[in-house]
Amino acid sequence: xxxxxxxxxxxxxxxxxxxxxxxxxxxxxxxxxxxxxxxxxxxxxxxxxxxxxxxxxxxxxxxxxxxxxxxxxxxxxxxxxxxxxxxxxxxxxxxxxxxxxxxxxxxxxxxxxxxxxxxxxxxxxxxxxxxxxxxxxxxxxxxxxxxxxxxxxxxxxxxxxxxxxxxxxxxxxxxxxxxxxxxxxxxxxxxxxxxxxxxxxxxxxxxxxxxxxxxxxxxxxxxxxxxxxxxxxxxxxxxxxxxxxxxxxxxxxxxxxxxxxxxxxxxxxxxxxxxxxxxxxxxxxxxxxxxxxxxxxxxxxxxxxxxxxxxxxxxxxxxxxxxxxxxxxxxxxxxxxxxxxxxxxxxxxxxxxxxxxxxxxxxxxxxx
Length: 368
Known about the structure:
21% of the residues lie in helices and 35% in strands.
């Protein structure tokens, strides 16, 4: 477990955060400039707080009151940044060995062969970084960090510099290292899809302070229509069971208590559960089930709240059959025209093409 409670004041910015992270991925989420990267640097020991305490497991890494400040290279923390930062003159194998070289033999818990297999980089070992794709370089950087046998892995926007195809390539590898090496990860991102897919706990930061901590379904949900300028960040997280893959059309069918979800792409774990991130701006509401329409996903639910202000938007909170919540943004005009109010039975329509593969573990688009 990582426990952080630190304060740092700069001329134009003040950070005052406190949070804890346990097993799996703890995501630091929020807009640019909110303090995510500064928090990561303080945990790593690359900066020292004005005041505070950082504890990793049973080890105190920073305690300004007691004068404790463990040097970065003694913290047993692996670092992965946006830029892979590999040594350009060294082959992949030597870059990987560099991380292991500085770890005492008695502390080497992770073997090179296991890292190479999980990250799928065996065929790259004799190549230099300049010959690798962005996704390949980032996988090697993750491997080098893992081979320090860290007690904690810090990942600062590791996919931000990659295009969408490379992001989709890397995400399954991050899931595998999370699940197979059981190393706690603090993951910085401003992508709701990445956070919904990877995180067990989300720490939301705004203006250098923690404003919310909880599960992705709680923290990524919109809190009020007054935040309509952030409506594209508002996400519902639904859980369903994989029923089948329709190879003729390249679609996966998911069973949910409220109905059936149809996703573009292949999910191979038939019968297994899957977590799906749905943006509130991608949900359309109807008062009945229509016919002759292109939308394949129609989930039954009940309106439990309609939030409006004097702006153009309304935020509708639904309780789906089965108990999960789904959020939808609409215009106030649409809400008035439909006469929507708490207690109304509705159908939530979600276009398959609006589902982002980055928000669904294991989903991959099958080429035509």
